[in-house]
Design brief:
Elements (H helix, E strand, L loop, with lengths): L12 E5 L6 E6 L5 E6 L5 E4 L2 E4 L9 E4 L10 H8 L12 H40 L4 H35 L1
Antiparallel strand pairs: 1-2, 1-6, 2-3, 4-5
Helix pairs in contact: 2-3
């Protein structure tokens, strides 16, 4: 049996895309800002640096940044989850994050628009009914035509109710996902 140990370089590395085509990557020490080198992505969209194989899924854009954090601790420490949660609030220093506020604004705006549509529908339906009443005062009422119009309005109301119900379910699902 042979045993091998690998000492991880505790240096945190930031990879920044430095060209428009997304193929040239500049490597920088995250804490000190020291320049570590430049690598070109190969045809497989990957490169090697300090015995680590960096592979990108998809295309990178100029000025995209990726940070590699190394740790000798192989336990699941949930540090990614902590960093993800930190993005929920807008950071005044970095200007990054604020996703919970954006989501809350989206939910609020959707609620207002749904209620506004519902109120418009109710108002339009009332105006329509008044117009029908006035029309029937001036002319003889054709019951078949009136029944057909009533059925049409009922179907429109049911369709809108289904749209609003679906929107409510969407908002509830989004709220439960966080």
């Amino acid at each position: 049996v042979t045993s091998a140990t690998q000492n991880l370089d505790a240096r945190e590395i930031t990879a920044k895309v430095s060209t428009e085509d997304g193929k040239k990557i500049t490597l920088i020490d995250t804490k000190s800002g020291d320049y570590l080198g430049v690598r070109e992505l190969n045809s497989m969209n990957e490169f090697n640096f300090r015995n680590l194989n960096w592979k990108f899924d998809g295309l990178a854009n100029k000025d995209d940044e990726f940070t590699l954090f190394t740790s000798g601790n192989r336990q699941d420490d949930a540090s990614n989850l902590v960093r993800f949660n930190a993005l929920a609030s807008l950071s005044d220093t970095s200007g990054k994050g604020g996703y919970s506020e954006i989501y809350a604004n989206l939910v609020t705006e959707t609620g207002f628009k749904s209620r506004e549509a519902e109120q418009r529908f109710e108002t339009t339906e009332a105006i329509h009914n008044v117009a029908l009443d006035r029309k029937s005062e001036f002319s003889g009422v054709d019951l078949d035509t009136e029944a057909a119009r009533l059925l049409e309005q009922q179907q429109a109301y049911q369709a809108l109710a289904k749209v609003l119900s679906t929107a409510k379910e969407l908002v509830d699902t989004l709220l439960r996902s966080f």
